[in-house]
């Protein structure tokens, strides 16, 4: 009877040992170790001034352990970035930049990670109040790592920096620069996902500059060039909002939607768009009826 | 109720003593528990080489890449283990429960107890047992789906969206959904409780077993329900912990999910053996009286 209990338990334990050993340098164990090290790092970030130096050293050692033991895994790349950020939290900026430069040297083929490393270098200069060096790092991302998520976010990040410093002129200058940057990418990569994302970022820049006419023009181009984009309904709603609330010319929305319907007569959203045109027309008619002295032109037939 | 009390508590005590005296009666469901533990272990190692080379494409296409990485793979563990448990129960668990029932029948008849005889004897009725188990499982899913439909209607915005008391009730219903499924399961188990004893001990065919089962259940519904609910209530604390798994994973460590599921398997072994023993003893007392 004892054998009947012990043998199955032994089998399950043996299976566990074998499968644990088969993957002892694999991604999973690296992820596990990174998860617990990250938890420690998160605890450090909540109050870095209260953390004893030994705890910092232990966390740094754990990141280094992941980097050396699991060198070929994705977790080791993440560990390099996080180790640098740990140094930043300890205000050891040179050590942090050393780690980030290691990423640029050792994993040059991974553009996303290199962009993140360069961004972190910029953050370290920002933390030291060396804005010109930080800006130089950020602009390197925009030039050398086009197409990465970080490169697309960076112009707006820089504009936001100026906003935080209450430098409206600096903010607006950079938003104009950002708009030009995104326009260049959209023109260089037409009809691609990158081109589409760049156009959306251009819209964001122009919204922050409150250039509603230009936003509307780009939205119209997006509808024309990317009729099957996943967030087409969001774009339609933006067209309505800008035409009606910002520019106060609802006819613009009607014209854009009609143009889309004429260009894409078989599109599955056409019924929705026709309903929206009716709604806008009804709002217009109600507005005209309630304000008899209003000089706004009567809406065109849908 | 006092009639039930006079039946249930002596029966509980008697059954508990029987299992203690004949621990070999735990073996049939221990085999099912072993299969579940082994399956759970396979699921635990699924994101790791070499199992991930086989299963990762399937998981990726069904549930996305995220569930193949630590610690989100433990959420996948719940999903996969749930489906695996159903498959094990339908294919093997029902048969092993019937074997346990046969052993309790032998104890009642003062026969010599071993594992091989009931395994062989019950194997001859495997197809009937499989059909009964499949029917009861399908019934459970139908009732659960009906409950979900009603629940979805009640919690939808169409149903009194602005009444604060109704909103509080909606939140309560959502939170208690897993407990509702637990009690629905008990209800379905009670509805089909005597099918296996009728097939294994009285050699009835499926339709006859179903017919006599419903007659016995109809005449002894409260007692049957209590015989199943009382042992099953010991699972509730584990159910509470499983409902709060994400909090536990964050406060303790993600592997706590594996421990909870393993603990559930071991606990279910004892509870399910007790339940089948109670049902069999009660059935024999009622059937023999007839």
Structure in words:
The complex is a heterodimer of chains A (302) and B (290). By secondary structure, chain A is an all-alpha fold. Chain A contains 14 helices and no strands. Chain A has helices at 2-22, 27-46, 53-69, 74-89, 93-106, 111-127, 131-144, 149-164, 168-188, 193-208, 212-225, 232-246, 250-263, 270-290. Chain B is built from 14 helices and no strands. Chain B is globular and about 55 Å long. In chain B, helix 1 packs across helix 11 and helix 11 runs antiparallel to helix 14. The longest helix of chain B is centred in the first third of the chain and has 36 residues, at 73-108. Chain B is mainly alpha-helical and 290 residues long.
Oligomer: heterodimer
Derived structural class of chain A: mainly alpha
* Ends distance of chain A: 85 Å
Mean pLDDT of chain B: 90
Supply the number of helical segments of chain A: 14
Structural class of chain B, please?
mainly alpha
The proportion of strand residues of chain B reads under 5%
How confident overall, as mean pLDDT of chain A? 89
Most strands sheet of chain B = none
Q: What's the count of strands of chain A?
A: 0
Q: Please give the count of helices of chain B.
A: 14
Tag the structure with descriptive keywords:
heterodimer, A: 302 residues, mainly alpha, 14 helices, 0% strand, B: 290 residues, 81% helix
In short:
By secondary structure, chain A is mostly helical.
Structural topology:
The complex is a heterodimer of chains A (302) and B (290).
Chain A: H1 2-22, H2 27-46, H3 53-69, H4 74-89, H5 93-106, H6 111-127, H7 131-144, H8 149-164, H9 168-188, H10 193-208, H11 212-225, H12 232-246, H13 250-263, H14 270-290
Chain B: H1 2-21, H2 27-44, H3 51-63, H4 73-108, H5 116-123, H6 126-155, H7 164-175, H8 177-191, H9 195-201, H10 206-219, H11 221-232, H12 236-243, H13 245-251, H14 256-289
């Amino acid at each position: 009877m004892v054998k009947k209990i012990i043998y199955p338990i032994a089998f399950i334990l043996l299976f566990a040992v074998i499968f644990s050993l088969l993957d002892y340098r694999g991604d999973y164990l690296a992820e596990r170790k990174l998860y617990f090290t990250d938890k420690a790092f998160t605890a450090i970030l909540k109050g870095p001034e209260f953390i004893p130096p030994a705890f910092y050293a232990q966390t740094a050692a754990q990141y280094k352990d992941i980097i050396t033991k699991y060198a070929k895994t994705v977790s080791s790349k993440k560990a390099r970035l996080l180790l640098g950020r740990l140094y930043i939290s300890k205000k050891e900026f040179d050590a942090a930049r050393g780690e980030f430069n290691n990423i640029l040297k050792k994993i040059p083929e991974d553009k996303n990670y290199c962009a993140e490393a360069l961004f972190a270098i910029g953050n370290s200069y920002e933390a030291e109040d060396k804005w010109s060096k930080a800006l130089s790092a950020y602009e390197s991302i925009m030039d050398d790592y086009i197409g990465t998520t970080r490169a697309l976010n960076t112009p707006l990040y820089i504009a936001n920096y100026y906003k935080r410093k209450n430098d409206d002129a600096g903010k607006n200058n950079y938003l104009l620069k950002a708009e030009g940057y995104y326009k260049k990418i959209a023109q260089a990569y037409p009809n691609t996902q990158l081109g589409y994302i760049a156009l959306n970022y251009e819209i964001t820049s122009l919204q922050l500059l409150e250039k509603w006419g230009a936003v509307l023009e780009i939205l119209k181009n997006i509808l024309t060039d990317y009729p099957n984009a996943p967030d087409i309904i969001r774009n339609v709603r933006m067209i309505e909002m800008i035409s009606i609330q910002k520019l106060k010319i609802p006819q613009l929305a009607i014209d854009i939607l009609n143009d889309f319907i004429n260009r894409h007569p078989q599109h599955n959203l056409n019924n929705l768009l026709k309903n929206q045109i009716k709604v806008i027309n009804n709002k217009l008619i109600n507005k005209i009826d309630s304000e008899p002295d209003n000089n706004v032109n009567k809406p065109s037939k849908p | 109720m006092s009639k039930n009390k006079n039946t249930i508590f002596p029966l509980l005590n008697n059954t508990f003593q029987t299992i203690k005296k004949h621990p070999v009666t735990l073996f049939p469901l221990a085999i099912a528990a072993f299969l579940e533990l082994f399956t759970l272990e396979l699921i635990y190692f699924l994101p790791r080489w070499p199992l991930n080379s086989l299963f990762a494409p399937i998981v990726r296409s069904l549930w996305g890449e995220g569930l193949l990485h630590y610690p989100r793979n433990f959420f996948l563990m719940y999903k996969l283990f749930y489906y695996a448990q159903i498959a094990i129960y339908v294919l093997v668990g029902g048969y092993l429960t019937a074997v346990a029932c046969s052993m309790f029948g032998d104890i009642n008849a003062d026969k010599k107890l071993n594992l091989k005889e009931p395994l062989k004897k019950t194997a001859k009725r495997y197809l009937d047992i499989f059909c009964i188990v499949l029917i009861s499982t399908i019934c459970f899913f139908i009732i659960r789906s009906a409950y979900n439909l009603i629940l979805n209607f009640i919690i939808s915005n169409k149903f009194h969206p602005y009444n604060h008391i109704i909103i509080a009730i909606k939140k309560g219903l959502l939170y208690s959904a897993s407990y509702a499924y637990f009690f629905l399961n008990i209800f379905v188990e009670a509805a089909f409780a005597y099918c296996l004893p009728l097939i294994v001990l009285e050699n009835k065919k499926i339709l006859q077993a179903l017919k006599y089962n419903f007659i016995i259940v109809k005449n002894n519904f409260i007692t049957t329900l209590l015989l199943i609910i009382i042992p099953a209530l010991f699972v509730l604390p584990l159910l509470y912990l499983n409902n709060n798994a994400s909090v536990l994973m964050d406060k303790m460590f993600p592997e706590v999910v594996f421990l909870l599921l393993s603990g559930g398997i071991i606990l279910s072994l004892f509870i399910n053996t007790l339940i089948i023993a109670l049902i069999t003893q009660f059935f024999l007392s009622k059937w023999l009286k007839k």
